[in-house]
Amino acid sequence: MAELSPQEVVKVANKITPAELASDLQLLEGDAKKFDLTVRRAPYTPAEKTSIFSIFSSNMKSFYVDSSFGWKPLVKKAELFHSQARYIVARRSPSSFSGEVAGYLGWRFVVDETVEGGEDAVVYLYELSISPKHQKMGLGRILVEGVEELGRKAGMKKVVLTSLKKNLGAVAFYSRMGYEIDPTSPSRSEPDEDQNEFDYEILSKTL
């Protein structure tokens, strides 16, 4: 059988239902059992949208205000709640916070261009955000390990994300998780350019 193209791999992956993805997350062990993990995709409820954007804003607004991206809530909401966006949403297990969202990871299955001009099927991690009172509990690691497992099962080649250089906590976290600067990141793809013009890095991890 001929190998599927990146476009075909992504097309198949985007047909996987949230219930099918969630069943794979149930196989996670250890600290993952402390949380109820569900997979969501559009349409989102008003409560879900409020929780997701509130956690994102509390953690990231100050970084965006000082970045080249700027703080543009309407643009960010359109990205967060795009029709192809998917989320792993975490709540405490057993729920001791009345179903309150503890954190989430938002991603899409997409075709990404390589520096050589080729294409890869990848998991693009758009947002990982943990509510302040649920931080330092290992939830970020659980969510990233979860989406990596989903990406492997869906046939994705790697996980890709964009991280602001000033967000030192995120940079250190992804380094511990095995992520490295991707060849498409400006510091590698445009080494002769003034790197002060770029306030972000593109990171990736092969699956």
What would your notes on this structure say?
- The chain has 207 residues and is α+β, with helices and mostly antiparallel strands.
- The chain has one domain: Aminopeptidase.
- Helix content is 35%, strand content 27%.
- The protein is built from seven helices and seven strands; from the N terminus they run H-H-E-H-H-E-E-E-H-E-H-E-H-E.
- It has helices spanning 6-13, 18-25, 46-65, 73-80, 139-153, 168-176, 186-189, and strands spanning 35-41, 86-92, 101-113, 119-130, 158-164, 180-181, 200-206.
- A seven-stranded mixed beta sheet has the order 1-2-3-4-5-7-6, with helices on both faces.
- Strand 2 (86-92) and strand 3 form a beta hairpin.
- The longest helix has 20 residues, at 46-65.
- The chain is globular, with a radius of gyration of 17 Å.
- The two termini are 22 Å apart.
- The model has no long low-confidence stretch (mean pLDDT 89).
Précis, in short:
The protein is built from 7 helices and 7 strands. By secondary structure, the chain is α+β, with helices and mostly antiparallel strands.
Topology as a string of helices (H) and strands (E): HHEHHEEEHEHEHE
CATH homology group? Gcn5-related N-acetyltransferase (GNAT)
Quickly count the domains: 1
The number of strands is 7
Topology, pairings included?
Layout: H1 6-13, H2 18-25, E1 35-41, H3 46-65, H4 73-80, E2 86-92, E3 101-113, E4 119-130, H5 139-153, E5 158-164, H6 168-176, E6 180-181, H7 186-189, E7 200-206
Parallel strand pairs: 4-5
Antiparallel strand pairs: 1-2, 2-3, 3-4, 5-7, 6-7
